[in-house]
Structures are given as C-alpha cells and as structure tokens.
Amino acid sequence: MKYDIIVIGSGPGGYISAVRASQLGKKVAIIEKYSTLGGTCLNVGCIPSKALLDSSHHYYDAVNHFEEHGISVENPTFDFGKMVERKAKVVETTTGGITYLMDKNNVDVFEGLGSFEDATHVKITKKDGSSEIIEGTNIIIATGSKPSTLPFISLDKERVITSTEALKLPEVPKHLIVIGGGVIGLELGSVYKRLGADVTVVEYAPKITPTMDADVSKELTKVLKKQGIKFAVSHGVTSVERNGDEVIVKANNKKGEEVTFTGDYCLVAVGRKAYTEGLGLEKIGVEVNERGQVTTNDHLQTNVSNIYAIGDVVKGAMLAHKAEEEGVVVAEYLAGEKPHIDYNLIPGIVYTWPEVAAVGKTEQELKDAKVDYKVGKFSMRALGRSRASGDTDGFVKVIADKNTDEILGVHMVGARVADLIMEAAVAMEYRASAEDLARICHGHPTYSEAVKEAAKAAWDGKPLNA
C-alpha cells in the first residue's frame, strides 16, 4: 500500500497532522504501537491527570470551602476507586473520539511498532509477531516522549514511580515524595495532597516551575504551601532507595548538608525525553542531537528530505498544543501552503489550583536580552468576580516594551487562567500594545478584567480598581 503521508505515532501531534493532511487531499496512514490512539497525552498524561485534578478539587472544596458558601456536607468522604474509574472512562471516551476522527477523515490506522526499512518504507510489527510494510512519499515522526529519570534511581514502578504509575495508584499515599518541582510534579502532588496525603516536593533549582517568571514561582509556592505542600528547593537528590513499603530519598541542600526524606511513594518527575526506540533511524541516517531529539530545520524537515518530525521528539517545549501546531504546519507545508508557527507565543500552563499560565518573555529573559521594559500587575483579590467565587489568590502581570508599549509577556496565577491566557496570546499575535488591551471593554464581573487592569498598569501605571 502506498500513501502520500505516513504518520508514526498517534498523539496530539500525530493524529492532528493526519487529520489536517487528509483535509488537504492527501492519502494518509497512521501507525500506533498501542491498542488505543491518542499517545501519552490522552492515555497517561494531560487528559487523565486533569480528570483526577478535577475530582480531587471537588472533594477539597467540599471539605474546605462548602461551609463558607452555606453548604453543609457532613464528614465528606471519597471513593478513590471511583475517581480512578471515572478517569478511565474519560480517557476511553477521548481516545474513542480519535478513532472516530480517523474514520471520518479516511485515515488508515495500523496497530503495531513502526520502523524504517528505508526512507520510504515502514515496517509495522504487530503484537502477534506478524508484520507488513507500507510505502509513503513523506513520513512524519511523531513518537513523542517518555518520562526521564536520574541515572542512580531505579524505577520499580510500584513505590518509585513515574507520572504514568502515579495516575493509577491502588491507594492514596500517606507521604508522597515528589522529585521535581515542574508542571507534572506539582499537578500530581496537588491531586494527592487534596486527598489527604502528605506531599514533599524536592527541587534542584532554587524555585519551583524554574523556567517560569520569578513572580509566578513565588506566588505559586506561597499558595501551595498554604494548601499544605512542603517544598525543599535547592536540594540535589543523591539517592532513592526502597525498603519494603518505605522509600528513602537523600539529598544535599544548598549548604551541602545531607537531608533525608521518608515516604511510602516517590514520584520521579524530572522531565521527559524524546522517544525514538525501535524506529530504526540509524538505518536511514536520520540525525539526532546529543539529547536524543530528532534534528530538524525550520520546516520540521530532517536531514532525510522526505522525513519530518514533530512534537516531543524534536527540540522545544514538550507540550501537546505545541505538537499539534507542528503537526498542522508539516501537513500544510507538504500540501504546498505556507504556514508559520511562533514559538514565543506557545502558552505554558500548570493545572494546579489556582492555575498558572504564561506566554511570551519572562522578566529575566528581557533583562538578559537588555530590553527596556515596563511591568503592570493586578491582584486577583481586587476583582469582584474573584471575591464572589472565593478565588482571590494570584495576579496578572503584563510586561511591555518601555518605548513602544508592545506586549512582550503575560504571566498569570489565578482561577481559570489556563483559558484566560489565550486573550494575551491573541493580542501578542497581532503585536498589540498594553494600551490596546487596556482599552478593550471587558465583561463585568469576570476574571478577565484582571488582564485589562494589568495592561492599564503597564501602559500608564494607573489601574482603575487598585
């Protein structure tokens, strides 16, 4: 069988690329080694984690906040098994939706491990050991990533676990030690803290969410500490050992002193690494960099001209929405169109509560680049909508060019900022100024008014409600 495009991997980058290519008249096949489509994001990442975050958030509110709303729930309890069951149903519905999309768009789906025979032929090895070969004029590598670990840590996937196992634990931990204060560690740490676990986050950097704006990290630390999560920043982990049902983590603090943490589970959340195992890239000479990522040019084309790569398997932020955009870009490029992607405008989001979202440059990045900038900041506490819902933690921060007033970065902590950040991304796509954003009429009462107020603070230093 011959195809215009073969996509290897059915995560957000892969399946979106296949859909878009089919929409543009290409004959498309997609290869997935697992029995369900959707990749890490839909099966063991974004979707199941958000399902557990929502369930645990409802329980946390019932215990801690219903009373202030005049709602009496005597001794709220939860059924962790049902939470996990609901999560599984959400995953099943979502992955089933991808199967529907493949049928709707006439994309042929092959289950099995895809590996290169040569630059235009891909062998599909099935679970029963049988195989078949299909041919593609162009091939897109969308095989994603896997959780990383540290070289001295042995992952038994029972007590010393990755995010994959953390989404299907048989019980709520008594004390969950999280190695890594990034997005994954904080989100899953939040899930189990809300359900009654003690949670300690051990982070090598001097702050959590180390790549985000310093004000965001500071605010999030304050809020999560208030919720009961403990933090040990500037701590370099030196060993992780399991002793029966106990896990002992040793680390050196910034003074060089050894500190010991003891828990019943340890989540290793130190990032992810590109996954190319079994592809046979060496057979066709596709180049990879020192981090194992597939090397591409500005069109996401590898050094083998008919082979492209997208998503977590190439350089850049490991985000589902970044992979989706890259998938669309490659599909359109192969159809003769001229798409573009602005990597500066890909939002970063943390789904704790309050949520965290950011787009564009941080203050530190602008300082390093010697750009003259100005900052406007507005507290969520000053919003009527925030007071009405009881979600008063957080702020919106707008950074603009000091000379032109163009918005260079927006950073948020607060209720529903995961959705709110897109207002900033749209404004920045069209190179709006802080004044532009400040002069747009925002509905009242809404959380979005904080964006208007922060923009006005950046523009003329005079927010209206602060």
Structure description:
This protein has three domains: 2-146 and 273-335, 3-Layer(bba) Sandwich (FAD/NAD(P)-binding domain); 160-270, 3-Layer(bba) Sandwich (FAD/NAD(P)-binding domain), CATH 3.50.50.60; 354-460, Enolase-like, domain 1 (2-Layer Sandwich), CATH 3.30.390. It is globular, with a radius of gyration of 23 Å. By secondary structure, the chain is an alpha/beta fold. Helices cover 33% and strands 25% of the residues. The mean pLDDT is 98.
Brief summary:
This protein is an alpha/beta fold.
- C-alpha end-to-end distance: 65 Å
Shape: globular
Mean pLDDT: 98
Question: Could you estimate the helical fraction of the residues in percent?
Answer: 25-40%
Query: DSSP helix count?
Result: 14
Name of the level-1 CATH class of the largest domain = Alpha Beta
Content-based structural category: alpha/beta
Question: Which architecture of the largest domain per CATH?
Answer: 3-Layer(bba) Sandwich
Specify the biggest β-sheet: 7 strands, mixed
Enzyme class: oxidoreductase
GO molecular function: dihydrolipoyl dehydrogenase (NADH) activity; flavin adenine dinucleotide binding
Pfam family, one: Pyr_redox_dim
Family: Belongs to the class-I pyridine nucleotide-disulfide oxidoreductase family.
